[in-house]
């Protein structure tokens, strides 16, 4: 049963669910062809990829989940909501769907979740597409202030004051770079966060982004497992959250890396530049496939 607030014209997909010990995890699985798996960040959900999916599903199989506590997934009281737990759930979904030769698309907090799977299962990952993100400890990262690190501005205030800032204001601030984001679309993000109590639980993952240094370091120690995977980086240069130094680190990391800069866009390229993103992702997949084809 879809909630009354869901705009099914904007999000016209069939809902599927995977039953986990902690609750039901919602996901969508649209189209046929080479597999593209998309992992959202916070405080987003699979809705953020809706336009990409509409554009890509005629030629690709597009899979996007809602992490527990987000979107149309359950929001249980007794789930930890820590990054490692979300990563475990994502691995369960990949095992359930038995996907191979994946193009993995990750954004924001979705990178440590999605790349944890890639680092442990590199044989299943054909390509990686990254949008404004990181996968390393932030505890000593100089692009984040000592006071807030990732939890800058309104998100940090929101989490530390437990809803002194309204959810609507939070979403408006975080999507502030998307100048033309209609209120009706913002409301899809606001409503998907649930009740005030549920919001504090699900957004606890953001508090943990600084406090999981050991787990991040564990991931980073496995980095050689993915550094040879062809990677496309799509980067909004007006990002208020993830600074350009993170991009430079990714460029140094991957052996085969292509970077597309969006000078006038911010953190949420999926909302601002969906048409261009779909074109770049499709062309990237096609070009990498050609490289793998035997010469005649």
From TrEMBL:
InterPro entries recorded: AB_hydrolase_1 (IPR000073), AB_hydrolase_fold (IPR029058), AB_hydrolase_sf (IPR050266), Epox_hydrolase-like (IPR000639)
GO molecular function term, any single one: hydrolase activity
Gene3D superfamilies given in the database record: alpha/beta hydrolase (3.40.50.1820)
Pfam family, one: Abhydrolase_1
Protein name as catalogued: Alpha/beta fold hydrolase
Keyword set, alphabetical order: Hydrolase
Transmembrane segments: none
PANTHER family registered for this protein in UniProt: CIS-3-ALKYL-4-ALKYLOXETAN-2-ONE DECARBOXYLASE, MONOACYLGLYCEROL LIPASE
Ranges for domain AB hydrolase-1: 34-274
Domain of life (superkingdom): Bacteria
């Amino acid at each position: 049963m879809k909630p009354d607030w869901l705009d099914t014209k904007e999000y016209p997909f069939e809902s599927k669910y995977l039953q986990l010990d902690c609750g039901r995890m919602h996901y969508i699985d649209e189209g046929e062809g080479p597999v593209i798996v998309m992992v959202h960040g916070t405080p987003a959900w699979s809705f953020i990829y809706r336009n990409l999916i509409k554009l890509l599903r005629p030629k690709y199989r597009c899979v996007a989940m809602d992490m527990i506590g987000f979107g149309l997934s359950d929001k249980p009281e007794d789930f930890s909501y820590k990054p490692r737990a979300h990563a475990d759930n994502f691995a369960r979904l990949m095992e359930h769907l038995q996907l191979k030769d994946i193009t993995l698309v990750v954004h924001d907090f979705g990178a440590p979740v999605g790349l944890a799977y890639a680092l442990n299962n590199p044989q299943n990952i054909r390509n990686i597409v990254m949008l404004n993100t990181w996968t390393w400890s932030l505890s000593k990262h100089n692009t984040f202030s000592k006071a807030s690190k990732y939890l800058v501005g309104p998100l940090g205030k929101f989490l530390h004051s437990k809803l002194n800032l309204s959810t609507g204001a939070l979403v408006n601030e975080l999507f502030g770079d998307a100048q033309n984001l209609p209120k009706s679309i913002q409301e899809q993000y606001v409503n998907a966060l649930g009740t005030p109590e549920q919001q504090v639980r699900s957004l606890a993952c953001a508090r943990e982004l600084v406090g999981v240094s050991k787990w991040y370091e564990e991931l980073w120690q496995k980095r050689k497992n993915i550094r040879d995977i062809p990677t496309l980086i799509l980067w909004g240069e007006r990002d208020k959250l993830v600074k350009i130094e993170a991009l430079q680190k990714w460029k140094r990391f991957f052996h085969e890396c292509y970077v597309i800069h969006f000078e006038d866009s911010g953190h949420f390229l999926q909302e601002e530049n969906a048409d261009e993103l779909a074109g770049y992702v499709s062309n990237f997949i096609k070009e990498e496939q050609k490289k793998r084809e035997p010469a005649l």
